[in-house]
Each structure stands twice: as C-alpha cells, then as structure tokens.
UniProtKB/TrEMBL annotation:
Residues 160-215 form a coiled coil. Keywords: Coiled coil. Residues 24-97, 127-153, 238-292 are annotated as: Disordered. InterPro entries: PcsB-like. This is Uracil-DNA glycosylase. It comes from Sinomonas atrocyanea.
Length: 482
C-alpha cells in the first residue's frame, strides 16, 4: 500500500498505467476536498450505497462519481484481457486484478533506495456504471524476483566483534583453568614433599626409639650400679668412705705386720694418733640436703610432718633446683621406691625414661620428677587416685614449682598426672602466666598403661620423645647427645 501513500511516484510513469479502478481506489482512500466529509478521509463517498440503512430509504441514493477521464485508464490492467461477458457499455463482472505495490529498499553501503515492485492479487471492486471501452490485450510481464539482501557492513563488524569477545572469554577461561591446574599440581607436589619429610622424620624417630631401647639395658645396669653405690654411701658408718671399704684385705694385713714389728709401732705413736683422729672425723653432710637440692627435700620433710605415718620420697640429688627446666609429673599409682626416691613407677619404667633422656641429651640437672599425690602408705600401692587425693596434691605441687624457678614445662605421665596439671592451669596462679608454663600429656611408663607389643611401645616412646624435645626447645635446651 506504499504506492497509495506516494502518488507522486506514478507521475514518472505513463498516465495510462493506472486503470479506472485504481483511480477509484485512490479517490476513496486519499485526500478528498468534499466539505460534506466530516472526517476528511473520502470514505463517505466510497461506502455510499454499500450499506443499506433503513432510515435513509427515503433519502436520495448516493450516485457514484464518474471516473476521472484519463487517456491511460484502460492500460492499468497489466495485460489482463477483458472479461468475456463484459460489453462496451455494460458494467463488467467482478474479477481478479493485479495491483503493483512499490516498496522502498535500502541498498547496502548507504546508497539511494531502489524501488522494488511486487505483484499482489486483490479482489476486484465493481466500478460505477460507466462505459468501459475494451483495452487492447498486452503481454503480462512478471515482476522480477527480489535480489538477495546484502548484509550491512555495521552488522558484519558487530558479528566480528562479538566473535572476538567470545574468543577472548574462551582464552581467559582457558588461562584460568591452566593456572588452577598449575596450582593443583604445585599443591600436590608440596603435599608429596611434606609426606616424604614426615616419613623421613618418622623413620629417624623410630631409629632413635630403637636405639633408646637398645641403650636402655646398659642404662639400667648403670642405674643399678649407681643405686648400689649410693646405698653403700648412705649405710656407711661415720668416717668410713667407699675407698676404705674396697680395701678390707689391706686393713687386715696391717695389724699383723704391726705385731711382728712392735718396736716400729712404738716409735711412731704420733702417726697412730693422727690416724685415729682422722677416723673420728664427723660424717659428711646428708646428700639429700645438699645446696642444689635442699629446697625441694625440705619441702618433702614438711609434707612428712604434715601427715605422720605416711611416706614421702625424696628427690634424687642428681637433680638441681637451679638448673631444672622440665618437670616429669608421675601418676604414682604403684608402691614407693625401695630406695626412697621419686621414680617413674618401677625399675622398667625408670629404665625407659633414662634411655629416652639419654637419646635426647636431656641431662639429669635439667629435669626433676614429682608425684601427683606425694604420700604413700608404707608397703602398699596407691592404686587409682581419687579426686580428693588429686585435690590434696595440688597445693604441694604449687609449692614445689616455687622451689624450681626456671621450670617452663610439665610432662604429665598418665591420666592422674594430666588431671592434676589441668587443675593447676585452672588456678590462674601468676606463676603460670609469668613463666608461660605449658603442659604436655604423655603415657604412663609403668603398669598396664605401657603394656603392648614392641612396635606399640616404640610408637609411645616416639610420642614421648617429641613432647620432651619440644619442652627442651621452649626452655632453650639443645637436643642431642654431646
């Protein structure tokens, strides 16, 4: 219908191109100067006589306007022959006619629009009664097929830009995936290295534990000999030394020689008197109250007086209150040591602990033992400690820690010892936070707590060695045998 809106287009063609029907159609939908047309659209004249209104029966029927007399009215049929039943003076029957519609089409590259013709078949509208002269027949020329519409350059550029953006996104996604893969590989390599290092450390620790077990036998023998010598020293009479006890035969031979030579004995009375004075010298001081251990064992004496009838073992003089950095807190569920000193529970437990300390290079003066419940019933085992007994052992433990001012770690062996250590931490005593005291939980070294296969015992000793090694590091002590 674009052709109807642009009537000037037909001015470039032959005026005979439009038919009478086209002129009628244009007159109906185009501009009409009729003053009686209210809407000024020309439809009143077109529809006059089509709709039969009862109210308008008395009125004069609308007469159709005569078609414009143009010379080329008969040539608008585009070669369609006149109907067979039509006469020159009669009204032709309705038939199908062809109307050419002209539409604008923008050429590629912003060129001038080119008109495109399209043939549209519409129903013929009966024309008004007017003489129609037959038009000469013309060969019908079909409208040319529309050419393929070229793609605008702007659209092509947009498609290319979209493709480039998609390619960039794909490349960025690929780079991210590659980076993630590299990170995953690096993480896996780091994990593998850490696992290898952990395996090497575990192997070294296992070897150290095995060496500790092998050295435990020799250490046990040394401990037995040292204990025997200490008992001899404690049981010796006043003025008698271990060196004098080792030479009894020589002492027996001297009187016989003196009897054989009485003159020589009389000549040296001064020398005999000096020997007698030397034999009558007072006994050496008790080693349990030597200056380096006296504060702790004086605390033990106080605990003995506090509960008469109970036994409280001393701390071995090989330890030192001035050099001690680590406390071994034992769950003393067994019997007291027959030698009268604090121990790990039995000879086997003492041997294990001594071998472990030997492998770590932990010297005796750097460590000191203490019992969770200091008192023993003579000849009886304490058994599992009750909450009342643990509460009773809390205050003696605090007093003991005050006698060892450089202690910064407690290794609690067994369940009872660990409970007492946790009770100690809950007291919020200034001693705890001033020293940065840390508690390490470890397995008990005696009884059913250490019953197991050789492999399990090795694992337990390795864990125990790690606890002591960390405690040494906190105290600034270097591990390893010197």
């Amino acid at each position: 219908m674009t052709a109807l809106a642009e009537p000037d287009y037909y001015d470039d063609f032959d005026s005979d191109f439009r038919s009478e029907l086209d002129a009628k159609y244009e007159e109906g939908f185009g501009y009409s100067p009729d003053p009686e047309d209210e809407d000024d659209d020309g439809l009143d004249d077109l529809f006059a006589g089509i709709f039969d209104d009862d109210e308008d029966d008395d009125e004069e029927p609308v007469r159709a306007k005569a078609a414009p007399k143009k010379a080329a009215a008969a040539k608008a049929s585009l070669g369609s022959p006149a109907p067979k039943g039509a006469t020159a003076k009669g009204r032709p029957a309705a038939s199908e006619v062809t109307v050419t519609t002209i539409a604008e089409r923008r050429a590629a590259g912003g060129q001038t629009p080119a008109p495109v013709a399209a043939a549209v078949s519409v129903a013929a509208v009966p024309a008004a009664a007017a003489p129609v002269s037959p038009a000469p027949a013309r060969a019908h020329q079909p409208a040319p097929a529309p050419a393929a519409e070229p793609v605008p350059a702007a659209a092509a550029d947009e498609v290319v830009a979209a493709a480039r953006r998609a390619a960039e996104k794909a490349r960025a996604a690929a780079d991210e995936a590659a980076a993630a893969a590299k990170q995953a590989v690096a993480h896996a390599v780091a994990k593998a290295a850490a696992a290898k290092a952990a395996a090497a450390e575990a192997s070294a620790a296992e070897q150290a534990a095995q060496a500790a077990l092998e050295a435990s036998t020799a250490a046990e023998q040394d401990a037995v000999r040292a204990a025997a010598q200490l008992e001899l020293v404690l049981a010796a009479p006043s003025g008698v030394t271990s060196a004098q006890e080792e030479e009894p035969a020589q002492a027996e031979e001297e009187p016989a020689q003196a009897e054989e030579d009485p003159a020589q004995a009389e000549e040296e009375p001064a020398q005999a008197e000096e020997e007698a004075v030397g034999a009558a010298d007072p006994a050496p001081a008790d080693p349990n109250f030597a200056p380096h251990i006296a504060p702790v064992n004086q605390h033990v004496e106080f605990l003995r007086r506090l509960r008469p009838g109970f036994e409280v073992p001393y701390v071995d003089p090989m330890h030192s209150v001035d050099e001690c950095r680590i406390v071994s807190l034992f769950s003393n569920t067994g019997e007291a040591s027959p030698r009268g000193y604090v121990w790990a529970g039995d000879d086997a437990a003492a041997t294990r602990l001594l071998g472990l300390q030997y492998q770590l290079g932990l010297r005796p003066e750097w460590i000191m033992p203490w019992n969770a419940y200091p008192w023993f019933t003579p000849g009886e085992a304490n058994g599992k400690l009750t909450p009342e007994q643990l509460h009773a052992g809390l205050k003696p433990l605090l007093t003991f820690l005050k006698t060892v001012p450089r202690v910064s770690a407690i290794v609690a062996h067994g369940t009872e010892a660990n409970r007492l250590a946790q009770m100690l931490l809950k007291t919020d005593n200034p001693l705890i936070w001033r020293r940065g005291l840390k508690v390490y939980k470890a397995r008990a070294l005696h009884g059913r707590a250490f019953a197991g296969s050789k492999e399990r015992q090795t694992e337990w000793l390795i864990e125990m060695g790690r606890a002591y090694a960390d405690a040494m590091a906190r105290a600034g002590l270097q591990t390893g045998r010197s």
